[in-house]
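Chapter summary example.
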Amino acid sequence: MIRQPGTNIKSATTVIACYKNKVNEFRSGVEKDLSEVIQIEQIFTNVPKGQVAKKDDWTKAFGSDNMDKVLEEGELQVNNLERGHQLASLSREIATLVAEMTVDPATKRKHTVGMVEKAMTEIGYSTRADKTAKAQALDLIRQLSQPDSVLPVERVRMRVRITMPAKDAKRIKEKLMELVEETEEEEMDAEWETVSFAGA
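The structure predicted for these 200 residues follows.
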């Protein structure tokens, strides 16, 4: 198994060299073995220079000499290479979501993920690590839906089948039909059934 060093847990004065994915597993309770989480069983004031922290420094910083507490409460720092990889992965996920949720308004065909990524670059879309991929995908769709967009898009229409007893349908049919764009088929017997298209 290849492990990528370079992630640190940091307090105001101390640093622990550790594996980021393992820290996340440790914090969620999946990983219990400290030797799998930390690279070196030392606490440093400066990892690159190899300067080891005095026990008093990290005890003062965390109120404990327990390394578990440092891993739980410390700030997780990620190196530039790993951060770049995370942002590239998030950007790809955003492009994939946009490709799944939209079509070209002229042809009604889906755009490829590559086309969406190219459009993201052309409009200077900046991926943010602090927002979810779905929230950013919806924001990107809003931007690409503008009339002068480099990649025209519109949301995919959902095909919805609604079935309910006829007595209930008489009461709420009008409200439901306000939510659909187009009705494909509709039947009313003992049950009311409709197949309609709604915006996503």
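To summarize the output: Residues 6 and 48 are 10 Å apart (CA to CA).
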